[in-house]
From TrEMBL, chain A:
UniProt GO BP: phosphate ion transport
PROSITE patterns per record: ABC_TM1
Function: Part of the binding-protein-dependent transport system for phosphate; probably responsible for the translocation of the substrate across the membrane.
Species per Swiss-Prot/TrEMBL record: Natronolimnobius baerhuensis
Location in the cell: Cell membrane
GO (cellular component) term, any one: plasma membrane
Protein name in UniProt: Phosphate transport system permease protein
UniProtKB/TrEMBL annotation, chain B:
PROSITE patterns (alphabetical): ABC_TM1 (PS50928)
Organism domain of life: Archaea
Keywords annotated in UniProt: Membrane, Transmembrane, Transmembrane helix, Transport
Organism for this UniProt entry: Natronolimnobius baerhuensis
Signal sequence coordinates: none
Major localization listed first in the record, in broad terms: membrane
InterPro entries reported for this sequence: MetI-like (IPR000515), MetI-like_sf (IPR035906), Phosphate_transprt_permease (IPR051408)
GO cellular component: plasma membrane
Transmembrane portions of the chain: 12-34, 63-92, 104-129, 135-152, 182-202, 249-268
Stated name of the protein: ABC transporter permease
SUPFAM superfamilies from the UniProt entry: MetI-like
Family: Belongs to the binding-protein-dependent transport system permease family.
Length: 313, 286
């Protein structure tokens, strides 16, 4: 009698065990699938973009498309040069504006601020990162655009309504900072305190410590933050679309209107979706964006590794 | 300039830069709350009135369609994306594969994370064209889900990584399977996981580039998942440069809602992660 209950119990246990193992097996397929999903999604995006760009590339050569400055889809002229030049202008100018602000703010948060001020400023930065960029664009339309149009551009001898490459860069310079700040703060704060102590101990001033020791030691992290910021600006869509003026011509000054690669898509996709070759041209823009951002990411990773080896402390 | 003057100068510069960033944020939030608040105070109905038939020309009615569109697109997208993101993060953190493969997956996730949102929009649109469908809420959901997926995965992955190893070891030590251990790890990291999901939702609700071409950009109330729809950011984008003053004013009212929603989500995420901290072993008791 007793033996019977025991075996029933062990049957029960075995049943529960096999159920657990079955669940384990099934879930392991699911999780492995989820792991592969990230790769599959990336592959699917890139392959789709390549496949859809083929019609354009089979009719025009790559060099021709990239170096021609005639953009007139209605006449089947696809020259990406104005948009490429516009993108490069905006990206470089944004980084020139944003990087010093970002690094200095990161230094302030990591090295100068203390206690409540520090918590307050860093949570401000977090909030800034979460504000949708379309809101920056909207506020810029009534604050930055008139300022640039009425005051700044005339000083440099250009006339215009205030929309243009410089305005976009100014606004993007702010949008991209929170992201670079938090990455830089992270790498500064990861440094051991002995580093600061020993530098101050040999008589360096605080600024010398920061510039000669800390920025070097945190260099790899800050550098990859800057490169990733580059990628951000490069693919920014909504703010440039609102503020750049949307004219596909080679910009003649920093205050002139222009076009970037993402805004090319925004401005032309709606109407020209039905024309296959134009559609292919715009998808090719998407492909260019992905490839360049991918290169940025990859080099950020490599540079980080190399600098880590060289700037050891 | 002697060393000490230099030191003072750069401290000033660092403080100045931080003050500038904070000032810009106060300006942006202030302008939005002030301008949008004024519109909403004089005419609160714009946020809950469906658009009239000549909305884009004469601004009759309000932008309820964009509010509804935002919720019905970003809500489901967040659920889909959450399931995938948590699963991928579990895969990355638990013992389902070799470390090398996890590294590879991580690299692709980083690339996806940095991919410009407009590319997701274009990608989904090419699919729509390829299968001969029309732009609709359904495809907006897909686009936003793809956009949120790498963001949420990264947050969740970080949260799981910060869960103490002892949790995992104890769980395996008691004879748990990988699934059971993974669930316990997720529970231990719950504050971070929830914060990640809310941040993903906040990013999704603020993004315009992904839904610009995929959700249909319509000026009517959506009737079902396969109807065209618009979202708040797209509405702001479309109305911002309108020649109609009323439409421009509605753009400010819409950004008021959007910014309040995003700020609210951040607060909620902070509160929730505080509350769920009691699940974390050795965490704060609250």
């Amino acid at each position: 009698m007793e033996g019977a209950t025991e075996s029933a119990e062990s049957d029960d246990n075995r049943g529960r065990l096999s159920q657990r193992l079955r669940r384990e097996r099934l879930s392991s397929y699911w999780f492995t699938g989820a792991g592969y999903f990230a790769i599959a999604l990336f592959a699917l995006i890139v392959l789709t973009l390549i496949y859809q760009s083929l019609p354009l590339l089979s009719e025009y050569s790559l060099v021709q498309v990239l170096t021609s400055s005639n953009w007139d889809p209605a006449r089947n002229e696809f020259g990406f040069l104005p948009a490429i030049v516009g993108t490069i202008y905006v990206t470089i100018l944004t980084m020139l504006i944003g990087t010093p602000i970002a690094i200095l703010t990161a230094i302030y948060i990591a090295e100068y601020a203390e206690g409540r001020t520090k918590r307050l400023v860093s949570s401000f930065i977090d909030v800034l990162a979460a504000i949708p960029s379309v809101i920056f664009g909207l506020v810029a339309l009534i604050v930055v655009v008139p300022f640039v149009g009425n005051y700044l551009a005339p000083v440099f001898g250009s006339s215009g309504t205030g929309t243009g490459i410089f305005t976009v860069s100014l606004v993007m310079g702010i949008i991209v900072t929170p992201f670079m700040i938090s990455l830089s703060v992270e790498s500064l704060e990861a440094l051991p305190d002995e580093l600061r102590e020993s530098s101050l101990g040999v008589g360096a001033t605080k600024w010398e410590t920061i510039r000669l020791v800390l920025l070097r030691a945190a260099g790899p992290g800050i550098f990859s933050a800057i490169l990733l910021g580059f990628g951000r600006v490069f693919g920014a869509t909504i703010v440039p679309a609102m503020l750049i003026g949307g004219q596909t011509r080679l910009p003649d000054s920093l205050f002139s209107t222009g076009q970037t690669l993402p805004t090319l898509i925004v401005n032309d996709f709606g109407e020209l979706m039905s024309v296959p070759i134009t559609q292919s041209a715009l998808i090719f823009v998407g492909l260019m964006l992905v490839v360049v951002v991918w290169i940025f990411n990859f080099s950020a990773m490599l540079v980080r590794r190399r600098l880590q080896r060289r700037w050891q402390y | 300039m002697d060393r000490y003057a230099k030191q003072r100068l750069f401290e000033l510069l660092a403080r100045g830069a931080a003050a500038l960033v904070v000032a810009v944020m106060v300006l942006v939030i202030g302008v939005t709350l002030f301008r949008g608040g004024r519109v909403l105070l004089t005419d609160p109905a714009v946020a809950i009135t469906p658009p009239g038939s000549r909305y884009q020309l004469e601004a009759d009615g309000g932008f309820l369609h964009a509010v509804v569109g935002s919720l019905f697109i970003v809500g489901p997208a967040t659920v889909v994306s959450m399931v995938l993101a948590v699963s991928t993060a579990i895969y990355l953190q638990s013992d389902y594969s070799s470390e090398r493969f996890s590294d590879a997956v991580n690299m692709f996730l980083n690339v996806l994370w940095a991919t410009p949102p407009i590319v997701y929009g274009v990608f989904v649109l090419t699919i729509i064209i390829a299968i001969g469908a029309r732009t609709s809420m359904f495809f907006g959901i897909i686009a936003i889900a793809i956009f949120q997926y790498p963001i949420m995965t990264r947050y969740t992955d970080e949260a799981l990584r910060s869960a103490p190893d002892a949790v995992k070891e104890a769980s395996y030590g008691l004879g748990s399977t990988r699934l059971e251990t993974a669930l316990i790890t997720v529970r231990a990291a719950l504050p971070g996981v929830i914060a990640g999901i809310i941040m993903g939702f906040a990013r999704g609700i603020g993004d315009a580039a992904t839904v610009l071409f995929t959700a249909g950009r319509s000026n009517t109330m959506p009737g079902g998942p396969f109807d065209g729809s618009t979202t708040l950011p797209v509405l702001i984008f479309d109305n911002a440069m309108s020649f109609n003053d009323e439409l421009r004013a509605q753009a400010y009212a819409a950004s008021f809602l959007l910014i309040v929603a995003v700020l609210g989500l951040i607060v909620v995420s902070k509160v929730l992660s505080g509350r769920y901290a009691r699940f974390a072993p050795g965490g704060r008791n609250s």
